[in-house]
């Protein structure tokens, strides 16, 4: 049934201005799935993810996520939507001027948490979840890339999101570290969270099973993600897919964290000031 999908896209065009990146996307994701979004550089993986958290508006087609209709979502609803989503990018983007602990406290306070003890408990809980509780007083520069990315995953977990979006989460680490990060994401999925990983690295698919979608490289049209096995599907477009996956480490997708924080701050009536964040 349609209402059981966490994400339900029908005939969606993903665009940058007048440029159609993905055309007529049919995409349905059920709660609790582990999803791969594969495709070569510039094929639109990030752009598709960006529609999910309202960074790219949906102007063509019907797009639903949780209870939100993305084609009609109001600006003021976007921060609320984003609080249900944990976002992880390949470049770690921890605030360099504060410890791991304070990085996480910052996000909680920016998203409306007030009780000091609850904040502290939540920070420790997510750090434990990613195996980084020992590093809570370290600064980002004192951590390896893999450790920083663990903290970023912890940060994404802070508000107990229903959905994790990971855009090339292993793009800046070596293969062995990447494998551990992917194992962690898969573990988070097994604990019940829906996870979507955009990557060009097909190796992860072999190691950590998930349902696969491909993006095409057609610039203006021709792409449809392979749809899910939905007996009740009524759309008539047949899915298409691509096979070509090429390595790339150059994803440039990181504007959103700062935007997330800005959104969270501007949205929240209970927004703390930077001063009140400092203990
Ligand atoms: N802000 C933007 N304005 C205009 N075009 C953009 C913008 N961001 C991305 N694009 C274009 O949209 C297309 C898809 O980019 P996108 O980043 O979604 O691809 P991707 O599959 O995630 O690639 P990568 O693996 O490099 O991250 C590319 O051709 C890119 O040049």
UniProtKB/TrEMBL annotation:
GO annotation, cellular component aspect? plasma membrane
Instruction: State the Pfam families in the record.
Output: ABC_tran (PF00005)
- For the keyword Cell division, the answer is yes
- Swiss-Prot/TrEMBL GO biological process terms: cell division
Task: Give the Gene Ontology MF terms in alphabetical order.
Answer: ATP binding; ATP hydrolysis activity; transmembrane transporter activity
- Which residue stretches does the UniProt record annotate as biased composition, category Acidic residues? 228-247
List residues of the ABC transporter domain: 7-242
Family annotation (Gene3D superfamilies): P-loop containing nucleotide triphosphate hydrolases (3.40.50.300)
Name of the protein this chain belongs to: Cell division transport system ATP-binding protein
* Source organism of the structure: Microbacter margulisiae
């Amino acid at each position: 049934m349609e209402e059981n999908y966490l994400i339900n896209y029908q005939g969606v065009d993903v665009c940058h201005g007048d440029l159609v990146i993905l055309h007529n996307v049919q995409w349905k994701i059920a709660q609790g799935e582990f999803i791969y979004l594969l495709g070569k550089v510039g094929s639109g993986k990030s752009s598709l993810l960006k529609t999910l958290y309202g960074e790219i508006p949906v102007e063509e087609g019907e797009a639903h996520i949780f209870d939100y209709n993305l084609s009609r979502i109001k600006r003021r609803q976007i921060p609320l939507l984003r609080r249900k989503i944990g976002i992880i990018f390949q470049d770690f983007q921890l605030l360099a001027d504060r410890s791991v602990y304070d990085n996480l406290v910052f996000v909680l306070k920016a998203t409306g948490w007030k009780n000091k003890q609850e904040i502290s408990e939540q920070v420790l809980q997510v750090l434990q979840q990613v195996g980084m509780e020992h590093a809570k007083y370290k600064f980002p520069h004192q951590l390896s890339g893999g450790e920083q990315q663990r903290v970023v995953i912890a940060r994404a977990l802070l508000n107990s999101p229903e959905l994790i979006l990971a855009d090339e989460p292993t793009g800046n680490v070596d293969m062995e570290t990447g494998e551990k990060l992917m194992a962690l994401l898969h573990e988070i999925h097994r604990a019940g969270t829906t996870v979507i990983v955009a990557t060009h690295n097909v190796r992860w698919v072999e190691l950590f099973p998930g349902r696969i979608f491909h993006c095409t490289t057609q610039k203006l049209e021709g792409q449809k993600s392979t749809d899910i096995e939905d007996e009740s599907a009524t759309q008539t477009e047949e899915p298409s897919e691509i096979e070509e996956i090429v390595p790339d480490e150059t994803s440039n997708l990181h504007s959103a964290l700062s935007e997330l924080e800005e959104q969270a701050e501007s949205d929240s009536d209970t927004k703390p000031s930077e001063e009140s964040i400092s203990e």
